[in-house]
């Protein structure tokens, strides 16, 4: 499945033939002269500028300022590039080991993490990921996941638990932006990832209000797309590109723990901006919604998110808000070509899937050694080697 839209970074208006500083001085002098003598007729160029400002005001736009740079409303409000090149269906290519007798806990778990944890791991946690790994994680013992050990047989055993896996880099002044400004953007990016991928209400399909409150309000196209995706999901408007959601009538998380692995970086962007880059994998252990269900399946989601921070001394931005410049996702173990706004994990006991058969390439959803742009492929739905 493919869904490519380009918006990219906001762009400025074409430069006038006269340098900005000279033209701004001329405009201010002209306006001063007009106020000083009402009988003076402004020049044709000044009338043209006044008419443009009048039209901008009628459209609700703010004029370009001498120190503030292009008004935000004159930028590309979408400024978000959505990609869902392909999703993964989590049916293993082969099962080379015999199924061992399961000995699950008598407790069936509870809807989306409201009771006992059930996510503890007996494997040593991995050190923080600060750079891309050089290779995929090695194979682990093919244990069958249970309610007591839902990450058994998975590299996620060594991942961090939930928000603890989203570790911020040390902030520092970058470009024209201060350390405090960069640090705030890092914290907001972390919170957006938590609200979109770990919040229990979001996971059970509720509207993630906190995410909408932090996004720059003039990104109207992006906000409109997300709202449409949540209200009326379809192939072109998929909330799973931004949010992790499961249908509570179909499945529920077992225990409280979602495993998290990834990294966050930042660097100076173009035109007095700082770009925060987040790349995280979330692993969700699930059981059927039926009371007493014990069979565990896992859905793996890799999120890539770019947040662009603009210098408020040069751009008209909304205080305390962030601009989403890009978001991408790949999914492991979710039925192909299903566009109802929920992940649909496959269980070994399932005799059929609700989606189409996978036609794309095979991939290890735990492999974080490659760039996400390469991983998302050509838009087809492929096969996961493990879940």
Describe the secondary structure blueprint for this structure.
Blueprint lengths: L19 H17 L7 H15 L22 E3 L4 E2 L70 E2 L17 H19 L2 H4 L5 H6 L5 H12 L19 E3 L5 E10 L4 E16 L8 E14 L12 E10 L29 E2 L8 H4 L6 E3 L3
Parallel strand pairs: 1-8, 2-10, 9-10
Antiparallel strand pairs: 3-5, 4-6, 5-6, 6-7, 7-8
Explain what the structure shows:
The protein has 387 residues and is of the alpha/beta class. The chain has helices at residues 20-36, 44-58, 179-197, 200-203, 209-214, 220-231, 372-375, and strands at 81-83, 88-89, 160-161, 251-253, 259-268, 273-288, 297-310, 323-332, 362-363, 382-384. The strands form two sheets. Strands 1, 3, 4, 5, 6, 7 and 8 form a seven-stranded mixed beta sheet that branches. A three-stranded parallel beta sheet has the order 2-10-9, with no helix packed on it. Strand 5 and strand 6 form a beta hairpin. The two termini are 21 Å apart.
Features:
seven-stranded mixed sheet, 17% strand, three-stranded parallel sheet, 20% helix, disordered N terminus, alpha/beta, 10 strands, 387 residues
The secondary structure category is alpha/beta
Summarize model confidence as the mean pLDDT: 77
Can you count the beta strands? 10
Low-confidence stretches: 1-9, 11-16, 36-43, 60-75, 79-87, 90-121
Which H/E pattern describes the elements? HHEEEHHHHEEEEEEHE
């Amino acid at each position: 499945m493919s869904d490519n839209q380009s918006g990219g970074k906001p762009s400025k208006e074409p430069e006038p033939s006269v340098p900005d500083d000279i033209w701004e001085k001329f405009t201010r002098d002209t306006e001063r002269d007009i106020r000083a003598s009402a009988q003076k007729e402004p020049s044709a160029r000044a009338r043209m500028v006044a008419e443009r400002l009048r039209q901008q005001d009628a459209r609700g736009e703010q004029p370009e300022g001498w120190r503030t740079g292009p008004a935000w409303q004159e930028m590309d409000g979408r400024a978000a590039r959505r990609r869902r090149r392909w999703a993964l269906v989590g049916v293993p290519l082969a099962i080379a080991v015999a199924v061992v007798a399961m000995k699950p806990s008598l407790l069936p778990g509870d809807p989306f993490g409201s009771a006992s944890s059930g996510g503890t791991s007996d494997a040593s946690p991995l050190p923080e990921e600060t750079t891309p790994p050089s290779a995929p994680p090695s194979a682990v013992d093919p244990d069958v996941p249970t309610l007591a050990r839902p990450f058994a047989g998975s590299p996620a055993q060594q991942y961090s638990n939930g928000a603890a896996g989203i570790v911020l880099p040390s902030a520092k002044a970058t470009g024209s932006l201060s350390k405090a400004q960069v640090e705030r953007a890092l914290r907001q990016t972390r919170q957006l990832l938590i609200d979109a991928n770990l919040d229990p209400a979001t996971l059970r399909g509720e509207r993630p209000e906190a995410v909408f409150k932090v996004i720059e309000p003039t990104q109207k196209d992006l906000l409109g797309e997300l709202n449409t995706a949540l209200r009326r999901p379809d192939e072109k408007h998929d909330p799973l590109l931004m949010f992790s959601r499961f249908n509570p009538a179909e499945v529920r998380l077992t225990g409280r723990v979602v495993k998290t692995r990834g990294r966050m970086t930042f660097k100076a962007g173009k035109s007095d901006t700082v770009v925060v880059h987040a790349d995280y994998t979330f692993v969700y252990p699930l059981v059927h919604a039926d009371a007493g269900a014990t069979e565990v399946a896992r859905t793996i989601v890799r999120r890539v998110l770019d947040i662009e921070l603009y210098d408020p001394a040069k751009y008209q931005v909304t205080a305390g808000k962030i601009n989403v410049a890009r978001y991408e996702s790949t999914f492991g173990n979710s039925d192909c070509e299903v566009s109802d706004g929920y992940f649909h994990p496959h269980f070994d006991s399932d005799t059929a899937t609700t989606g189409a058969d996978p036609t794309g390439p095979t991939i290890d959803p735990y492999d974080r050694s490659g760039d996400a742009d390469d991983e998302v492929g050509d838009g087809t739905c492929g096969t996961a080697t493990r879940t």
